[in-house]
Amino acid sequence: MRNLIVALFILVLVSCGHQQTGHVVYNSDKVNKGGPTDIEFENYIVDFEIRTGADVSHVPVQFGDLDNDRVGVCYSWASGARKIVIDRNQWYNRITELQREALMWHELGHCGLNFGHNDTVRPDRCPVHIMNWQLISHFCYNKNYDDYIRRFLEDM
Ligand SMILES: [Zn+2]
Q: Looking at the chain, which terminus has fewer C-beta neighbours within 10 angstroms, N or C?
């Protein structure tokens, strides 16, 4: 029984950001499960659901304070619970409106659709996919917008 409890408390942290990547096993006492979605994110989530047809209502999205220049994380518990935390300072002060959408699609790709990372780079040196480990730049997202959306939808 004790092992079962320990197993349930292990979660996978998907780190996304400028310098952070990979999947890290974390102890769940660092993160509280559940909670409401911050109102700031609701329009992005509705837009995502309409355009992808996915239901991500089981994934709360909340502001937090992330370290190491991370912009967002998808927390994934063995129980199936998911939660996205977005760094408040990055959201308001460090990224553009277009990047906010890319960030939401990236994290909802992890937490809502179980997408991993795709770190392939295009000939123009922009990432091939929104699921690149680094948050996509405003320049690249704007330049290749239709391609990013098309690729994302194709992977569903
Ligand atoms: Zn990621």
A: N
